[in-house]
User: Fold this.
Amino acid sequence: MTIVVNPHSKQEEKALLAFLDSMKYDYFRENEVVILSEAQQQEILERDREYEAGEAKSYSLDEIITHFNIPKK
Assistant:
């Protein structure tokens, strides 16, 4: 599984790393600076705006499993 997290500050980054360490999770930190295209930046800003306006959608795990046709174990 891959999860990408973009902390908004050094304090958030430290808190996240402390949590991951406390739970003994294995993780990989990418230290490269990633440059986003203008379209990617605008998409992120639009998703942030939707989230803050309460317009973001959320889905249950069952809905995600059904949508992606993931076989149940």
